[in-house]
Design a protein that fits this description.
The chain is mainly alpha-helical and 88 residues long. It has a single domain, classed as Glutathione S-transferase Yfyf (Class Pi), Chain A, domain 2, CATH 1.20.1050.10. Helix content is 77%, strand content 0%. It contains 7 helices and no strands. The longest helix is centred in the N-terminal third of the chain and has 15 residues. The chain is elongated.
């Protein structure tokens, strides 16, 4: 699981390696809205501390500018699912 891998990289390292883990984790976080909507679950409900941290990070201009728009990722996921025949 990518989130676990990124979290371990953050916890088990420092310097550039830790920064790489943070960046990869935040990139994964931009997929949360799509995954929650399609998978019918809530990160905020199931992992409130993780959701709070991701929300705080997204409030930083440098972070929000560097990541893809979560709504666009959701649209891409839906398009992929339609193409794969999983969604109408």
């Amino acid at each position: 699981m990518q989130i676990y891998k990124d979290t371990r990289m953050i916890l088990d390292s420092n310097g550039e390696e830790m920064q790489k883990g943070v960046e990869e984790f935040l990139d994964t976080s931009s997929h949360i809205i799509a995954n929650e909507t399609i998978g019918h679950f809530s990160v905020k409900k199931d992992c409130p501390k993780l959701a709070f941290w991701a929300t705080q990070c997204m409030k930083r201009e440098s972070v929000s500018k560097a990541l893809a728009d979560p709504n666009k990722i959701y649209e891409l996921f839906i398009a992929y699912r339609k193409k794969a025949g999983v969604e109408n």
